[in-house]
Every structure is written in C-alpha cells, then in structure tokens.
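User: Hi! I'm a student and our assignment asks us to look at how structure tokens line up with a sequence. Could you show me two examples?

Assistant: Happy to help. In each example below, the sequence comes first and the structure tokens follow. Example one:
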Amino acid sequence: MTQQRSTRVQALLADLTTAEKADLITGDGVWTTRPVERLGIPSVVVTDGPNGARGGGLFGTGTPTACIPSGSVLGATWDPTLVERLGVLLGEESKAKGAQVLLAPTINLHRNPLGGRNFECFSEDPMLSGRLAAAYVRGVQSQGVATTPKHFVANDSEFERNTIDVQVDERTLREVYLLPFEHAVRDGGTWGLMGSYNRLNGTYASEHEWLLGTVLREEWGFDGFVVSDWFALRSTAASIVAGTSLEMPGPGSWFGPERVAEALAAGEIDEAHLDALAADVLTLVERTGRLDHADTGPIDEKPLDRPEDRALMREAAIAGTVLVRNGPVVDSDGQSLTPALPLDLTTIDSIAVIGPNARQARIMGGGSATVRPYRSVSPLEALTDRANDQVTVEYAEGCNIDRSVRALAAPLLDAPLSLSFFNGHELPSTDREADAVSLAETADVLFFGEPIDGVDGPAYSLRAVGSITPEMSGSHRLRMVQSGQARVLVDGNVVIDATEDNIEIGDSYFGFGSVELGTDIELEAGKTVAFVIEYSSRDAVLLAGVRVGLTPPEQPDLLAEAEALAARSDVAIVVVGTNDDWETEGRDRDQFELPGDQRELILRVTAVNARTIVVVNTGGPHGMDWLDEVAAVLSVGFGGQELGEAVVDVLLGDADPGGRMPTTIPMRYEHSPAYLNYPGENSVVRYGEGLFVGHRFFDARHIAPRVAFGHGLSYARFEWSTIRVLAAPEGAEGSAPVVVEVDITNVSNRAGSEVVQLYIEPPSSTPLQRPVRELKAFAKLNIEAGATATARLELDRRSFAYFDPGDPGFAALADGGPVPAKGGQRRQDNPGWYVEPGVYRLVVARSAIDYVSHVDLKLQ
C-alpha cells in the first residue's frame, strides 16, 4: 500500500540525494537522528520511556522528571480516560526534555508471571491492553510528540530476547499478540512503532515483510515510522525491504550511506525502498513540528514538577490500587467486627510498619523504563507524617530481599562521590589533571556512549572519590560488578582488583556486566574511611560502568524483631514486594514466590496480630498462597513517585481503591497457561497455549485462580441492574454496533468506583475452537454515595468475530484419497475475520469469575 505523503514531504524527498536518504534513516547518537543540513531538515530527539520522559540520561540518571505509575498499575486502573491524561503529561515532559519522540508505551502481554518486563506492560488481556494503549498514544501525541508502541511483536519475556525464535500460529497472533498494536494504530493513530529483537516464526521482526508490510501498512493503514529497538538490526537489505524506517542508535551498523550504496549496487534494494523509509522519517519530522522549529542548539532539559502533575500521578496510583481482600477483623471472642480497611486513626494507638519495601519506596522497575523522579515518598514516611503524633508508628525491616549488590549511597556515603574523568584507557594517576568532573549520589556509574562532555566515548577512565562512615563494627562484605576494568581502594589499600584477569560475565547491565566480585573488610562503627573507585572502559561492550556495594555484618533476627513489634501493636502493615533488580529489562524473574523470607514474614506477623494488612509492592504477578491468612491485602504495584502518599490515602480511607486486577494470579505457578512452553529451548519458544492466555485458560480448564482477572473490591457498595440490549444489528454481517447498558447504584454512604466488564460467549456452532468467553468491552464508573450511573458499552462486528486462517487445500486432500472425505468441520477457503451466525451470550461481570447478569443475542 502506497502511503499518502504531504506536499512538503514529497518536495523534500525529491530534493534528497541517495546518500542523504540513507543518512535520514540512520541514528546519529544514542538519542538523536541525523539531520540533513543542506535542506534544513533537523535531527529528531527521542527519549525513554513508558513511565517517564527521562531525557538524555541513562537508566535513572539525568534531569529529574515525572515518574508516573508503571504499565501494570495503569492496566489495573481500567481507565482509558485517566491514561490519556497521563499521556498528555508525558508529552509535556518529553518537550521539556527537548524530545520529539517518546519510546513508549510497552504493550506486550503478561504471558507468563516470570516475565522480567511485566511491570512495563498493561495486562494479560489484549483488548484491555489495546484500549489503554490507544488512550496513552492519543494523550502523548496531543502534545505534538510521537509515540512508539513496543515491542512489535511477541517480545513477551527477556529469555534470549535478542535471538529467540517465537513460534506462534497466525490465528493466535491476530487475535492476541497483534491486537494491542492494532488498537494503537487504528484507534490511537500512533505516528511510530518500535520493532522487537526476537525472531517471529524464523524471521527477525525487523526483517519481517508480512508483519511490517502486509499487516501493519497494508491492512491497518499505518503511515508512520518503524524504529528498531536499540542494536536490534541484523541486516541492511532485508530490514529496508521489510520496512524498518530508522536504525537506532547512531552511528548505525547496518544503515547509512556506505551500507545502502552497497545494497543498491548489488540489486538487493532499489531507490523506491529507500524513498519509502525516508518519507516515513520526513513525516515524523513534519508531524512533530521540527520542520518549522528546527532548534539546532544544545538540548536544554528542564524539569516541570508542577503541583497539578503530582496530584494526577497520585490519582493514578490510587486508581491502580487493587483491594484484593478486606476481611472482617475478629476479636478474641470470635466475634466479627468491621472490615480491616479503611483504618480509623481515632481508634488506634499504635501501628507497626514492617517489610523490606516499607522504608524505601519501590516505584518502578529496572532497565530502560527507569527515570530520575522528582521525588519519592515511602509508605513509612507518608504514614508517619499523616499520623501526626496521634498514633505511634514503629518500623521493622522484617527481612532482606537484595538480589545482588546494592550500590553504596547515603547514609553510608558521607556525601556524593566526586567523579574525575580522563581521556584514554589508562587508569588515572593522582597527579593527572581531569578532563571533566561530575558528582554521583551512589557508587553506581553506568554510561552508554560518551560519559560526559569533553571525554571520548570509546576510551576513557575515571576516579570516584568519597568516604564511608559505617553504622556497625565488624566484617563488611564489599562487592562489585563491572563492565570494563575496575578496582576499589579503602584508605589507600587496593581491596578489589579486576583490571587484569579475565572476569566471568554475569547478568548485570543487561548481560554485559561481570559476576559479583567481593572481599571482606573490617570497619569500625562511626570511624570514617576513604573510599576510591578507579575505572577504565577498556573491555567494556556497549555499556560501560561499575557498581560497588557494602553489606554490613550479620544482622539481628529480623523476623523475630518484626514479630515482636507486630505483637505489641494494634495494627500491622506489612509492605512486601520486589525491586528494580528483581523485575527488570534484560532478564526474567527467578521465582514466582516473593523473594527472601517475605512469605514467612507475613505468616509470622499474622499469627501474632489479627489485624495484619499486607501491601504488595510488585511489578508483576507473584504467589499469594498466604492470601486467606491475613485481614486485608492491597496490590499497589510500582505506583510511581506518588506511591507512598497514595498507599496511605487508601489505607486511611481518604480515597477509594479504584483498581481491578489486570492479570490472573494462579494458585500455583504450574497453573500458568504458558508453563509447559516457557521459557524456550534450543533458541525457540513455542506459544503452545495458543489463544488460551490469561483468564481464557482458567475458564477452559475449569481451574480456580488465586485472584481472578478483573477482581477488585471497593469501600463503597453497589447494586447492578440486569443487562439490557438497546440496539443490535439485523445479521452477523451488520455494521451497526450492539449497544448494551447496565445501571449501577451506589448504596453506601461514600463515593466509590466500579468497573463493568462485558464478556462474550460464542455459539457452539463455531467451526474453530474458541475461548469459553472473552473480554470485549468495559467501563469504569466513579459514583457518588446514593447516586446511579449507567455503563454504556458498544460492541462492533469484530467483537463477535474470530480469525480463520483458512484451509484452501482441503478439497485437494479430500479428493486425493481412496475414500471420499465426509463430515468434519466447515472450512473457509480464504483467511479473514468471520462472524458465526448463532446465539451469543453477553455477560456483565465484576471479574472473569464473578458474573452479575447475562442476555442471549441471536445473530442471523
């Protein structure tokens, strides 16, 4: 399909030389494209990522920015309107960071609970993900900033993500994994898309002509640009012919004038292929306004940090908080009292706040989504401030969940580290003058390209100088990971040296870093020691840096300490979860259960305090076999920079928990739909569960989940009318929508929110196997006390359709045998979307297993 380009784009395209076209489709730096100065075509600046516009920083460094809730929390909001408002904020933040493209949203699916980037993605359900993706895109692009929904397609885990061959049938692709992207293109109107690293049925996604040409451009009418994931390209001609518009980052390995000229000379591509991609990039430059406002000076990144933005992010964190359980508190006589939540501080004297995530807010996962937030308030800090001395709030850690070395930071570090940078690989000597200087708040320095102005990207060294004042006396474990060569000195003595030996590679720094290296050092509490890191980028691949951490001597019995605190407190709030080391880009999770001793912590606290409230601070689904033992459970996810305040808002009842589960939590990991097909073997992963992802699998197998998809409680109470159909098409091929309404009345004395979920069960006559029921529409209603609101849901033809890949060869097979073929299923000669005539059941529900009412609809 030939895309229609503006007159301006066509004129510029006609004036470009072949070499300039090749420049245009090739990155310049890590975050910029190449300009064509002769024609006044400026470069375009891109920025990560899904939960904040980071700017030019890398993995949590750089200019502070708004950190909105992570994707799985946005999925739990079930609120496209709210997500669109957050998109507007991200568009404004992108512009404040000097960027015209936001590398977001991540709309792959929660195929398996252990997926490392589940926290970035919205849901297990393709329709919910698609609706939210389209809203996110509309919000960002309303500010003139392009989006790149990613990663196209079937990049649903981190296992061997750069090479894995995802084997998935066309029907499953069409109905499940492509659907969120189709929504982003057709409903959201996205200007861009990011390809994935993986292969799809044997072909790299960036070289897949059917995917990028037939489906994306011809069928969906996409007229934007396709950018490679960073370093994802594997070819010149194949990627250009398929339709990958832009290679990132620069200076590029496969595109660019020299490579393109070779492909043209060999007849592997022609000028028309190059024109199409150059036009994609020119259209991007035009749509983002760069042709009219071509600022060629240095990028001036600015923070916004507006009160109204903080309020919006807090609203979103609350809207994505799921009240999973709210049981009655039982007194010593076995009498049921009021529900455990919300808390009434006037009736409480003491609160125990317990858990590894209570004192430090875990607001986002790791990897390219990481930003430097404007602020981060922990649940402990927020609750202590809100209690305002009227209630005693005490803290106990309970257990440690560190997966690997935690970078040195305050209070162990007395002040930020002083960084001195030097050109060249040689480790710096003390009498050498630095070429550039900077500060670092932690002993974790990581660079991608040029580390700082005035220092050469490929070859440099640095010295980080600071001091440590330990809090405990005894043997401390000093640990380090590196990408390059580094050594650590304490009081002038080298204690770790990894500058000469071949060091084993581990899984840090996306697989480019070393295993942890360590030694023991004796330190005295309160006695300050000098601390120095000397580092060279020699032997670093892509990412260069070093991280150093310090583990204090063996700690007291944290579990017993937490148990004792809980026993003497009126209420125990246990904040459990993970962090950006457990859930991160670059690797999948190690386990389904909460890490460390958190399960035991929950059970021991619950045994001594009947009013135990568990706050689950994880990015993706984790085991909850302790669920029925506790009084109440809140699932808050990685809720962004306002997480701590939002958690306390819900705990105290200042706000209603508005979330509903975006993903099923199974009773046990083995119940996961992809369990037998995960993570893959011999470079292949087979999506053998087919259409039966998420709640569809549990329905088909009659397996009870631990927590159902769509489940979530409110502090308010609601009554639902029966479902009614207002309008319906006359036949299965009709184009008019089916309109369904349900009245919801808030019968409580407080405002609250309810999510009306509409599932469709297909007729039994459908020739192909279909899920028992599928989510096809939803509406979130915020209803004042005593008020009634109406959920109006529309179902188009695709809501009733299934994709049939067709079986045109069956007639020949049947005629070729000695016995004529009879019976069997009906077959379609041509692939396409089909609506089967028959009776469809429309079910309105509070969750995938909590049905309220239904109506049967006959399509002729």
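Example two works the same way, sequence first and then tokens:
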Amino acid sequence: MFKFTNSVLSRFLIIFLLLLPNAAFAFQHSEDAILDYSLEVSFDIEASRVTGIARIPVKRDQVLKVDKGRLNLVDVTLDKEKIDVSGRHETATILPPKEGTIEIRYEGIFKEPAYGFHGEQPLSIISGKGIFLTGTWYPRTDQMCHYHLKVRLPDGYEAVSEGETIEKTTKNGRTDFSFYFSHPLDAIHLIATDRYKVAKDHFNGIEISAYFFPEDVDLIQTYLEHTKRYLKLYENLICKFPYTRFSIVENFLPTGYSMPTYTLLGQEIVRLPFIPETSLGHEILHQWFGNSVYIDYTRGNWAEGLTTYLADHLYEEEKGRGFEYRKGTLIDYQSYVNDKDEFPLKDFRERTDHASEAVGYGKAVMVFQMLKHLVGEERFDESIRNFAVERRFRKASWDDIKKAFEKYDQRNLTWFFDQWIDEKGLAEIGLEDVQVKPSGPRFEVTFTILQKKKVYALDLPVTIYSHGGKVKKLFYIRKDKTHLEMLSDDIPQRIVIDEDYDIARRLSTDEFPPVIARLIGDEKQIIVPPLSGRETYEEIIHAFEEKGGRVNGPDQVAHKDLTASSLVILGIDNPLVNRLYGSLTAKGGFSVVIKKNPWDSSKVVGIFDGRSKREVDAAFQKVFHYGKYSAVSFDHGVNVYKEADQSTRGITEELLKEPVAVDLSTLKTLPYVVERVAGKKIIYVGETHDQFSHHVMQLEIIKDLHRRKRSIAIGMEMFQKPFQKVLDDYIEGKIDEREFLKGTEYFKRWGFDYHLYRPILQFARLEKISVVALNIRQEIVDKVFRSGLDSLSEEEKESVPSLMDFSDDAYKESLKKIFQAHEDSKTKNVDFFYQAQILWDETMSESIDRLLRTHPDDQMIVLAGSGHLVYGSGIPKRTARRNGYSYAIILNDADLEKDIADYVLFPGPIPGLRSPKLMTLLKEDKGKVQIAGFPPESNSEKAGMKVGDFILSIDHTPIHSIDDVKIELLFRKKDDKVKVRVLRKTFLGGPKKVDFGVSLQ
C-alpha cells in the first residue's frame, strides 16, 4: 500500500476514487426482518442544512439501532409519544415499549470540506453547486429496509435517488419528489442540482434517463446509445434487467458509483472519451451484481470481481486482448501484494488501497476465468444466470456462487473454492529439465513442472511451437513436481506454459515487465537525489520517504544496495543513471521511466526527471494512475506520452533453433561486403584471436577502405590506453618495432603471437594510419573481476567510463553461460565477472567515441574479439548510444544466426608466420628470467639447459624480461640456431656463465 500524508493524499485521492464501481459502503446490517422506512427531507441550501422526518413501524421490544453520525436528533417519538434514546456517540439504540411507528425528527449540516473528501469516501455536501448525500445523511438502521423517500427542493432542481416509482410535483416555487423502491436496501442516496438537463429514451420496457450539465449535453446521445447496447448485452448474457428504469447522472464531484436504478459519474469522468466504451458498462452490470443480488459482506465481496470479469475483462476478450487484461491483473497483484498485506478473497470487503484492489478485483477475475475453463463456457453462463435469478434482492456469498455452479456442473467444487477463495496467494509455477529427442518421425519434449511454496490443483495449459504451427495440451497438475511429455510433428522451437494467462499464478521474471506499479508496490526504496537542484524533486522525496524510502547520494549507493533495492533516481543526468544504463533521454516537462534493476531482476529503478519544480508538482500526483506503464511524460501536468515495455508471453523456454539455410546462389565475396559497408562511420571486424585468416580479412578490409582515399583510423582491442603514446611513436616512425613491443608491454598484456597482428601494424605504419589503443589497463579489469567496481581506489575509478550500461539482459545471460563454463566459477562472483566485461566493453566504446569526436572526418575500423561484437551487445550498441553513428559488424567464421552481424566471412585456413619457440617454461624474478621447466621434446633441454638457469642473453642481446625473449624470437625462424648464455649456480664453485647452441622449434 502506498501511504501518503494528508497533504499528499489530498492531491492523489481524486484520481484514486475515480470509477469506484460499487456504492455499497460495507454497512453491516443484521438478519432481522426488513423494515418499512419512510423519509421526508427538505433543505436550506444556503445554510447547507437538511431537515428530515424518518418514520419506521416497529413491534414491541424490537431493538432498533440507528446510526446518527453527525446528525442532530431533534425529537424521537413512538406514536407521537416522546421516548428516550440510549447510546453514545454515533449510534442510538431504541427499544419501543409497544407496537407503533417510530418518528425521528432530525437535522444535519453538510458544508463542503476543504478537500472534498474524507478518508476514502465522499462526504455528504449541500452547497450552491448541488446536493450530494451518502452515508449517514439520515438516521440509518442496521437492517435492510423498504425505502419511501420524499424530497422537497426549490423550483428548478432535479433530484435522483433509488426508486422505480418517481413522482414529481411543482407548486408555490418548490418541487416535491417522491421515490419508492419496492425491494429491500441497506441504504439510499440523493443527488440534486438546479443545473440538470434531462433526456429520456427507452429500451425493452426500461426507461433510460440522462441527467447532464448544460455544458455536456452533447454527450447525452452517446451515453444513451451505449446504455441501450449494454442493457441488450447483459439481458442476453444474464437475465432481464432488474428494474423498470435506469439513469446516467452527472455529478459535480469526481465520483464513479453504481446505485440501484442509476449510476453517478463525475463530470471529469463523463468527459473521458473511453468511459462510454468501458466503465459505463461496468456500472450498468452492477445493477445485477451488487445492486439487485446483494453482497453478504460478512462472507466476502464477490461482486467486484464478477462485475469486472463480465465487464472490463469481457470487453477486452471480445477484442482478442483478454490474455493481455489477465496478464495485467497478475502484474498488478505481483506489484502491489506482498506477504504482509496478502489475504484470501473471502476476507475482501472493499477496495482500500492498491493491494486490496489487486486481490478483490484482480485475483477474483482470475478465479472466474479458471472456473469457466473448469466447467465449460455453457455451464458457466447458465450458472451465472441461475445465480442472478435465484439470489435477486437477497444477500449472496461466495458459497452461493459455489452452489449455483455445483447445481449445473453436478460435481463437488469445494476443493476449488477452498484453494482460491478461502486461502490466500497465487500459484507459483516453474519449468525445468526440458529435453528434446527424436521419437520415430516425430519429436518428444519432456519437461518437469514445479509448484513452489504451495501445491495447487491446476489444469495447466502447455503449448509447443514449431514452424508447422503449435500443439496445445491441458495437464492435470496436483503435485509439487510433475514430469510430463508432449509430441511434436515438426522440430519444436519453444515450449510455453500458460501463454493466455488462464491460471492465477505469479509471473516469471521474463513475464514481469518494469512498470510504475512495481515501484509503488515495493516496500522500501533508495531515493537518489541529483547532485544539484534537489529542491525540484522535494515532493517526490517526501512521498517516498513517507513510504519508508531512504535518501542516499549517487556516490553513496554501493553494489550491495543495487542488488537488494528498488531505486528512485531523480534527474536524468544523475550519475547513477550513467552507472546503470549509460545515458537516457527525457521527454516532456516531467517524465518517469521505469527500468529493470540490472543487478536484481525482482527490483526496478524509477528515473524521475523534471524541467522545473512547477512541472514536477503539476504531474507527480498523476503518475500513480499510470501503474501499468513503463514510461510516461507530461507537459504542464497533461499526459503527452505513455508506453509499456514488452515482456514474454507465458513461461517460455527455447528448444531447438529453426535450421538456417543459405542460398548459395547469393553468396558474395569480400569486395562486395566492403562496398556495402564503406559508407558506415564505424566498421567492426571480429576475430578469433589465434586465427591468422581472420587477421588477413581485417587487413584486406583496411586496405580496401584506405584505397578509397578516406581518412581512416584503426581501433585495436589488443592495446591498452596508457600506451597510446608508444603506439603513436611507432606509427609515426619515431621508434622501431622492438621499442614499440617493449613499450606497449604487448606480450605481457595481450600474449597472442605478434605475427598475427604484425602485418596490420606494419601497413598502418607504412601508410601513417592512426591506430587507437582501445582497452583499459588489465590490472583494473582483473581487480573488478576479483572484487567488483566498488573495490577500485579513487584514482582507479578515474579510468572508469562515466557511462556504463548494465541493462542488456540477453548479453548478461550469454556472459553468465561463459562464466559458468569456467572451472573456477564456483569460487568467483558472477556479478563481478559481468562488471569486468562491461567495463571492458564500455572503455573500448568510449575510446572509439573520443577518437571520432576529436577527428570527426575519420572513418574507424575496429578490430576486436567477436564476443565483443555479436548482436551488437558488447561495443557497437554502446558506441551508438554515445554518438548515434552508423555502423556495420563483420564477423569471421561465426554461426549463422539472425541479427548476429551484418556479414559473416568464411575465409578458410590461411597459413601464417608464427614465432619460433625456445621450448622453455620461464618466470621472472627481480629483473632476471629463470627457466622453470621444459615441455616434452625440448631442444633447449636436449642442449643441456637446466631448470633454475637464468637466461642472460640470446645471440648477445641482453635478456631482462620474458618480453625480451619473445621480442628476440619474433625476428627468428623455425630451425634457426641461436646462442643462449645462461647463469648457472654450481654446488661448490659458485654461479658460472654457460653458452648453449639451441635450434628453435
């Protein structure tokens, strides 16, 4: 429940009360005989006063309890004899000493309150705007009554109340109305004003009236026509309309009620264009359920759920969107209902907050959907008709609904109502151990359905999709773990559980989109104010603090907070937005974007952005009316944009991929590919690092683009940013190759044979093509992999890109699989692995963007491992987020999958040079290189070299590091013989220098 202080509540309450679908106010009446209640009232409108006389025939010693509220009981008599009234505060008890008629003279003053409402229900009001009386505006009994109401008003007024028989007379400047309702009610209401324009129509013997204000008379015909359509619909679906008249009444207050014989809609509501198509039908259906079949509140309010199911839900079902409506109810339930405020349907009385609405309306809709599937549509409809007829003008409970269905279904449904009405919660279903294997000419899919926490009896729909269509089957589930199988004629592509949302269940992570409702429903949030301009968002901060949220600055939110909390981030330029999603843009004067928390899928992040405090204050109170959306924006308090994120339909698992076919007649060559990508600002060319053929393709692409006389630059993953100066000096010819390799620490930081990249670097040096070191220092990546971003020092954090997007779920899942394949995955943290990978990607993306900003005329060819490029997830999309430049992705020897790249090359094996090997295992120790071992068949070992020897030189070139050894070997060929001088420790004579001739392998 989202709780507000009075100041916040006063601005949110009008929206919250819109379209409250039933006028039953949970007044708990007794089971005594029905009373005859005659009421006469008149008004002093200027004084906001009602004066009335209530007459109630009673028997001797019949206890009459009267709720007097704030009324003043002027006189109470029994057959004109004054009697004492006992009781305190709002309740009076009358014990008549004889049979007769109790007469109660009273008066009450109902002035317009400051906010117009109190608690959750409109107050009674008597003012120049009009008269609206509900609740205790007359002495109410705790029993049901046959009411006869007489109202005296100034001439020109029109009045509406519960009544099938209405008489109106005008005399001496006043108008008298007489309303008689022949059926028992627990309360009556009154609405009156001198502004009404009245229009009438008829349908099937029912008089239809419209009471509208002059400025809205152009809406009358629309409402009358839609009313006739709904009456026809429900008379066919249920039974004859229970009354001889029905009125649509416009109210000067923002109400949305249905009372017997009329509905009362606020002016703001009446003007909404969708109301005649949706909510009007809901209110009319309440004439059957709630206003003629009464609710037994002592045993649960069933009417809201049934009315919603046969109105709001039915309208969407007729448009083919019923599954979307049901999914929406499950999203609301999962967003708003937690363990603390969850309760069974039998305990629902009325909507008091989002959680109670999700149970009493949403869960009930799902229960009726399951009931229809259980008994079949024909029996469902017949049972509802029988229920409506048999319980007309009587109280009804969930048990009466059960009996109505058992009568036609001829089986005991106690188990169904026990688990869904008497017990709280929803089913929680999981899918695991899915396997596919051939079964003759078909395919067999085996899988296990789990029920977590609690076991329900379910008829579970399962669908297998293939290119030939789908196979759907209903399984009878009664255990916590059920092993099942299905057959498919064609290659099964995916399995989907409950794709139409026919089961009252909790949604899987992939089905549960990030929406505003999830942020509202979360119990506690971390509120992250902007670095400056906090005053713009004070109302938001105050509202979420009242709900239990705590305020943390952007630099105070640690990784442990991100993994356990929903966040309220204020300001689109908040540094925490950049840390989580790279960068976002705002729409309108005030906007809200809800995104998944990338570190905890059960949590969300709400980003609130306002151009000014005025824009925020004008729109924030409206946001909570848009719970089903993921993004909304407003200008001057008016909604200008709303959108909901897509999520999977049903619990889904992919099975076998559709086979990919290539039309060989359309195969292209490398020049064709280069021609097609030549106009792109950035061209990414992927590689498997140790495949020489991939690097040949990279070089050929570079050469072709260079020949087009366009200024190009080469970005390389293989070099780290701190060594850019060394790279520049080499390209410019200021240093030689040895200095370049030593200065960039190539062999220490990359390690792959330099011959793989040497032709590319040599061509770049020859043509003076800029080469950009893209990567971050390896020490930082390693530290993040071990301990996370929070472990970095302030100095190390300066190297971290300011924009970091962790929100690509598909990329995260693919990296997770890579992580789990590592032998040490059980001892490492997958979150830290993901952080390290994104740090790597974002750094390279930032380096590309920086080069193009400083050299806007350049075209860039980026050379990187294919894992950083597939589907665009690693580097390309992140760079496009930064600058929006066009790009193309070319991969080598990659799987042919949709959207994996723009082009895939298959160069075939190409032989290339490799550095020869000394065939020694080396380690560095204080500026010395020591032999730690030998691989099998080592020529160095055969020549006499031993473990523990220190290599001093190779062909007179001093050796101080392993890099020195690799650089020296780079300029040699296999089978070359080199002279290796080592320093060997002897047992008695001390260290000595020994020379060996070694053939390189």
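Here is something you could point out in your write-up. The chain has six domains: 195-292, 294-422, 429-509, 514-643, 671-905, 921-999.
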